[in-house]
Amino acid sequence: MACSSAAPKFTVRRRPAVLVAPAAPTPHELKHLSDIDQPDFLRFQVPVIQFYRRNESMGGKDPVQVIREALTKALVPYYPFAGRLREHHGWKLAVDCTGEGVMFVEADADVGLEHFGDPLLPPFPCLEELIFDVPGSSAILNTPLLLFQFLGAVAELARGAQSPSVLPVWKRDLLEGRNQQQTALVHDKSDEVSGRSSDDADTKASSTMLPLIDNAALRVRSFFFGPREIAAIRAQLPPDLQKRATKFDTIAGWMWKFRTVALAPDPDEVMQLMVVVNARGRNTAEVGIPVGYYGNAIAIPAAISTAGELCTNPLSYAVELVRKAKNQVDMEYMRSTADVIALRRGQSPPITAGMYYLADETKARFHDLDFGWGKPVYAGPAEAVPFPSFPLLFSFLLASKNANGEDGIVVPIRLPGPAMDRLVEEMSNCAHQPM
User: Fold this and answer.
1) Closest CA to 297 of 138, 187, 164, 169
2) CA 414, 417, 422: angle at the middle one, nearest 5?
3) How far apart are CA 385 and CA 414, in angstroms?
4) pLDDT tens for residues 369-420?
5) Most buried in the list 178, 184, 207, 261, measured by CB within 10 Å?
6) In this structure, which long-range contacts are made by residues 224-228, counting pairs with CB atoms below 8 Å and at least 24 apart in sequence?
7) How, if at all, do strands 84-88 and 92-96 pair?
8) What are phi and psi of 275, to 5 degrees?
9) Which run of H or E residues covers position 151?
């Protein structure tokens, strides 16, 4: 994103990128990833940005020195992050624990937080100045690695802890495919590009492949769901569903339904809400996923409906479909997902025009990362909508505040202009409904 004429003017002074290695010797070994870690559609980088206010109680401590020292310590128990991803057996990934270290760039910028808007939300102006893309570091293989649980350990050590409160657990074999040749438990609805089978509807439907989108014709807007908005949405649900539906179910159901209304697709178009679910802490029967496991533990079940059914049924229809899809995820579902990935040997399912991915970034807890200067005023994806190749298909739920300082959830979304106008109108109607 280039700086516009209205963007803040500031200068960034960068030092050369360096590698920060573990503070002590670490094992040199090859650690295999699980099948859940393998899909091609996970092989991307999402830039994350965190803004912190100056904290006088830190006594002028240099954040570069504090964070860099904490990095070296955290890389001892989390030594795979000092290694590099390699490919073996044609497509599977493993971490080559080389001890090389993570990439670190020190920089100074003569700009204040007030120049980036209130509240702080993506897209941020002059992002390419704030997040420097070191040449050669954008690939997935053979480049430095990073993950949130590791950053949590760095933050604890930066605040003076002697060791991380949660020690890392590898155990990627828990989510290995079982080489089952029979039909897996997980029925991947994203394969259904012509026709569908669902317990929730009998209508035959079709779903077109995603056409090329002119990004310049799309608009980005963030929708805020605070206490008033969520209460207004819940008021449209039957009393029993009000009790059963979570905040995520409620927001996701509303976004899915009214995004579809705004796009006005053919009534027979298959609409799929792909819900990114973290399996940690859920019903993980039998073995379970242990505390400290820092591999991918996500599943992406699909809520599915025709556009016509989604638009004409009450909001409870969409919310219930979201709730049912999300609640499928248990340990057996995760193992079956691994089976499907292993059988595909890394091949990704097709992307269709009716898909919409929604991920609750608040569960990643980036907004809790305190390196000694307090919690960030913003922490999360640096871009409003990731994956420029498919700008219509992805949204995050982000923790935020509105102009009155109320806590809530904000959902950035990118849509064509007329569709965005319709969605803004629906949101206005929701916000003004009596509670």
Assistant:
1) 169
2) 90
3) 7
4) 999 999 999 888 887 766 655 667 889 999 888 777 788 999 999 899 999 9
5) 207
6) 224/400, 224/402, 224/408, 224/409, 224/410, 225/251, 225/408, 225/409, 225/410, 225/411, 226/402, 226/406, 226/407, 226/408, 226/409, 227/406, 227/408, 228/431, 228/435
7) antiparallel
8) -95, 120
9) helix 148-158
